[in-house]
Amino acid sequence: MSPYNYPELLNDLDRQINLWAQLKAETGATGVADKVREIDALIAEKLAELRALPDDPALRAAEPDDLDGIRALRPPGERRHWNKLPESTYRDRLEAALLGRFSGCVLGSIVECWEVEQMERWADYLGDAFPPADYWSAAERPHDLKYRTSPREAFTRAKMDGVPTDDDLIYTQLGLLILEDYGADFSLSDVGAAWMKYLPHAATAEGIALSNLHAGVPAEEAAIADNPFIHWIGADIRSDPWGYAAPGWPEKAAEFAWRDASISHRRNGIYGAMYFSAVISAAFALGNPQAALEAGLAEIPADCMLARELRWALEVAPSINNYREARATVDERYAGMHRIHTINNAVLTAWGLCIGGEDFTKVIGETVAMGLDNDCTAATAGSIFGAAYGVDAIPARWTRNFNNKAHSYIIGIESFAIDDMIDRFSAQARLVHAG
Questions:
Q1: In angstroms, rounded to a whole number, what is the distance separating the alpha carbons of residues 85 and 88?
Q2: pLDDT for the residue numbered 212
Q3: Is 362 exposed, middle or buried (0-12, 13-18, 19+ CB in 10 A)?
Q4: Which stretch of DSSP H or E encloses residue 372?
Q5: Angle CA(124)–CA(129)–CA(134) in degrees, nearest 5?
C-alpha cells in the first residue's frame, strides 16, 4: 500500500483548455479571451487555496528541517567509525567511489528517465545487452547537447573522451570547490555564494533556488520561495562530496549534506542528501554496501517518510531479484509519485546495490535498467560500491575512456583532472579528520 494518498492528477487539462480556446477562436466564437481569463483566474485562486492547506502536524513534527531537531529524532547508531584517516585504504576507495559515480552516471545519462520498455527496445535495436553490461553503442539524437556542453554521443563507448558533463557530476565538483573556498565550517550563505559564482544554470529545486539567490532572496529562504520540488532528488545527487570529505564519519558527512541541501530542499529532500552522504561515508569504513545502507539510517529522523520507506525496502530486498521486479514493486507502492522524487529513487538505489552484490557491472546495469531517474540512482550506487570495495572491484572497461579528465560546465572550469580531484578530496578529508 502506498505511503501517500495521491489525488488523481488533472492529466492534460491545461492542454485541453488551450486546444479548445484555439478551436473556438478559429471558428469565430465570441468571448473566447474573456472565458480564458475567467479560467485562468479560477485556477490561480484554487492553486492559492491548495498551497495554503495546512500540513499534518504530527508528520511535520516527525520531519524537522533544523539540524538539532533532526539529530534529536535519530535512532541510535555509530556516528564515527574512523577516528584517524587510514590514508592508503581511503585513497583507493575514494578513487573507486569517484570512478563508480562517473561510470553509473555516464551509463544512465542518455537514457535518463526512459521507461523500461523503451530501454529494452533501444538495446534490442542496437544489439546491446540489457541490462547494459557496457556503455551504450549509440545515442538517440547524438548531436544534442547534455547540459549545453557534451553531445549525447560522448556518453557512448566509441565517442567517449573523458567523463562527459552531467548535473550528477557537476555537484560533486562543486562540493569540492565549496570545501576549498570556505573550509569545513562552510555556511548555508557560503553555499549560496558558491552557487552564484559557479553555477550557470540548474533545474527543478536547484533552478528555483538559484533564481531566488540571484533575485536577492537570502540563502536561508531560497528553498522555500515558490518551490514545489523540495522533496525531489536534487539534494540527494549532491551527497557524494560530503561522504568523500568525511570518510568513516557519517555524522559529519550528514551535517555537511544538511548545510548544502538546505539551500534548495526541505524535509525528505534534505534527508535524502543526509542519508546517502552518511551511507557513502560509512561504506569507506565498513567495506560493505548493505551494511552502509543500514548505517545511514542512523543519521535521519527515525519516523520520517524516507526512513520508513528505506526500512521497508531493505526488509523486502531479498525478494527483489532483478530490475523488472524492482520497478514493478516501486510503481505499485508509489503510484502517482513523480519519477524524480527522492523516495522512490532511493529505494531503487538500495535495491540495485542489493541485486548486484559484489558485481559492479550488475549493480549499475540493473540500476539503470530500473528506470526512473536512473543516471542519478546508478551514479549513487556506483559511488557507494566503490567506497566499499576499492578500485580493483571496478572492471577496467568502465574507466578506460575517461582519460583522466571529467568535463565540467562550472563557470570558468572546462574540466577537472581525475587524479587531481582525488588529491584534493584527500586533502579535505585529512583536514576534516584533523579538525
A1: 9
A2: 98
A3: middle
A4: none
A5: 130
Angle at 230 (CA atoms; ends 228, 236), nearest 5 degrees: 145
Residue 320 has a CB neighbour count (10 Å cut-off) of 24
pLDDT digits (tens, 9 = 90+) for 352-380: 999 999 999 999 999 999 999 999 999 99
CA triple 89-93-95, angle to 5 deg: 120
Instruction: Say which residue the cell 528555483 belongs to.
Output: 208
**% of the chain beyond a pLDDT of 90:** 96
Beta-carbon contacts of residue 92 (< 8 Å; ≥ 6 apart): 390, 391
d(CA 260, CA 178): 10
Dihedral sign computed on CA atoms, order 378, 290, 96, 198: positive
Q: pLDDT tens across 390-421, in order?
A: 999 999 999 999 999 999 999 999 999 999 99
Give the residue among 433, 420, 400, 370 at the shortest CA–CA distance from 176: 420
d(CA 161, CA 135): 13
Q: Nearest to residue 108, comparing CAs of 135, 145, 146? A: 135
State the cell numbers at 50: 491548495
